[in-house]
C-alpha cells in the first residue's frame, strides 16, 4: 500500500484576515492538526511562563516576538506532530522564521488570505475569543449562541488586549514591514496560493476545493456545501 505523504501547510494573512476562522473549517473537514502561534503565546501568557511574560510586553505593543524565541517555541511543538498532517497558523511571520522552518521540514503549500486592511480593522474590535480553545467569535459574523459564552464549554468569552484600535494599527504596520516579505519568499518557491476577497464565506469554497486536491474530506457534513 502506498502511504500518501503528510501535509505540511501554512496559513498566512494580516491580523483579522480570518486565519483562525478558516483554520477551524480546515480542521473540521480535513482533520489536520492545527498549531497557532498566537494561541500558544496566549496560553503561555495565561500560565505566566517565562516565554509568556516576555511575549506580553511585545504583544501589548503590537510588535512581533523576537525570532529566536518564537522559532524555538514553534519548532519544539512541531516535533511532537511528526506523524500527523499539520497546518501552521501565525508562523512563520518573518523571513528568518521561514528559513528556520525550512531547515526542519519541507512545506507543501502556503494558503494566503488576501483581505484588504480597511475590512479587517473593524472585524478585530468585534472579535471575542475563548482563550482555552482558541475559538473565535464576532458579534456580527459568527456570534456565540449565548451572548458572552463559548458554544462548546459555556465558559466566558474575552476580548484580546491587543485588539484595541491603536495596537491593531501597529500590528498592521508590522505585517507590512516584516510578514509581507515572507509571502514573496514562498511565492518564489512556487508554494504560495493566494485567496483574495472581503468575506470568509466567499473565500472558503475556493480553499476547500484547493485542499480537496490534497486531502480527503473526513467530516460528516454535505461536502457539496461545506461550512
Ligand atoms: N464581518 C466578518 N467578520 C469575519 C469574517 N471572517 C472572520 N470574521 C471575524 O473577524 C475576526 C478575525 O478573524 P480571525 O479568524 O480571528 O482572524 P485571524 O486574526 O487572521 O486569525 C473574528 O472575530 C472573526 O469571527 C467575515 O467574513 N466577515
Ligand atoms: N510567528 C510570530 N512571530 C512573532 N510574533 C508572533 C508570532 N505569532 C504571533 N506573534 C505575536 O502574537 C500576537 C498575536 O498573534 P495572532 O494571534 O496570530 O494574531 P492575529 O491572528 O490577530 O494576527 C502578534 O501580534 C505578535 O505579537
From TrEMBL:
One of its GO terms (cellular component) is mitochondrial matrix. Its EC number is 2.7.4.10. One of its GO terms (biological process) is ITP metabolic process. It catalyses: a ribonucleoside 5'-triphosphate + AMP = a ribonucleoside 5'-diphosphate + ADP; GTP + AMP = GDP + ADP. It comes from the Eukaryota. GTP binds at residues 16-21, 127, 136-137, 200. AMP binds at residues 37, 42, 63-65, 90-93, 97, 160, 171. Involved in maintaining the homeostasis of cellular nucleotides by catalyzing the interconversion of nucleoside phosphates. Has GTP:AMP phosphotransferase and ITP:AMP phosphotransferase activities. This is GTP:AMP phosphotransferase AK3, mitochondrial. It comes from Cyanoderma ruficeps (rufous-capped babbler). The gene is AK3.
Amino acid at each position: 500500500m502506498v502511504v500518501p505523504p503528510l501535509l505540511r501547510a501554512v496559513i498566512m494573512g494580516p491580523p483579522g484576515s480570518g486565519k483562525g476562522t478558516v483554520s477551524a473549517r480546515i480542521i473540521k473537514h480535513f482533520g489536520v492538526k492545527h498549531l497557532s502561534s498566537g494561541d500558544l503565546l496566549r496560553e503561555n501568557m495565561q500560565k505566566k511562563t517565562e516565554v509568556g511574560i516576555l511575549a506580553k510586553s511585545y504583544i501589548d505593543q503590537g510588535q512581533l516576538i523576537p525570532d529566536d524565541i518564537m522559532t524555538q517555541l514553534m519548532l519544539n511543538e512541531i516535533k511532537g506532530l511528526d506523524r500527523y498532517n499539520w497546518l501552521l497558523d501565525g508562523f512563520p511571520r518573518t523571513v528568518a522564521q521561514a528559513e528556520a522552518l525550512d531547515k526542519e521540514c519541507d512545506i507543501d503549500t502556503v494558503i494566503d488570505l488576501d483581505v484588504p486592511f480597511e475590512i479587517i480593522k473593524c472585524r478585530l474590535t468585534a472579535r471575542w475569543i475563548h482563550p482555552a480553545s482558541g475559538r473565535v467569535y464576532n458579534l456580527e459574523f459568527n456570534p456565540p449562541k449565548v451572548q458572552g459564552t463559548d458554544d462548546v464549554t459555556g465558559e466566558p468569552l474575552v476580548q484580546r488586549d491587543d485588539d484595541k484600535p491603536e495596537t491593531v494599527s501597529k500590528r498592521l504596520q508590522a505585517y507590512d514591514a516584516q510578514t509581507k516579505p515572507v509571502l514573496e519568499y514562498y511565492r518564489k518557491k512556487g508554494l504560495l496560493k493566494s485567496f483574495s476577497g472581503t468575506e470568509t464565506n466567499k473565500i472558503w469554497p475556493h480553499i476547500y476545493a484547493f485542499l480537496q486536491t490534497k486531502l480527503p474530506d473526513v467530516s460528516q457534513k454535505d461536502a457539496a456545501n461545506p461550512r
